[in-house]
Amino acid sequence: MGQFSHLDSSGKATMVDVGKKSVSHRVASAQAIIYLPDEVMSHFNGSDVQTKKGGVFQTAILAGIMGAKKTSELIPLCHPIGLDDCSIDIQVHGKNELIITTHASIESKTGVEMEALTAASITALTVYDMCKALSHDIIIKEIKLLSKSGGKSDYTRT
After folding, report:
1. I want to staple 14 with a disulfide (CB 3.0 to 4.6 A). Which of 8, 87, 124, 142 is the partner?
2. What pTM, to 2 d.p., does this model score?
3. Active site (catalytic) residues
4. DSSP of 3-66, one letter per residue?
């Protein structure tokens, strides 16, 4: 039976000690799916929409990368790490959805799945923020880890 990694033997919150772990190439990918109602989608021209704040996709991608870089400031027990890479892709899917896919990697003693998930979350929230003037019926449907590799165990969502 698994145990929570961020609890010590007395049940108190603790940062995981990665001091004795080996450095390895660690990679993680995550995804967010956003539903955008017709009144928002009607403003998209091809693959993006321009607003007073700028292009929605490009602004959201920059925000997602910035969020990934600040993950340890947002999630209390995450280790501060310097990402080697963080990339984000946003695609229109079907009539009313956006699919956000993030990828993060590092050579480190600890993984980057929280950074990939944070990037997906912040990207989705930025799309919401930039489009909310058109409708509040925007739904961030899901945020999920797609895969991670390079640590004690690998994972791929099937």
Report:
1. 8
2. 0.90
3. 129
4. --TTB-TTS-B-----TTSPPEEEEEEEEEEEE--HHHHTT-BTTB-EETTEEHHHHHHHHHHH
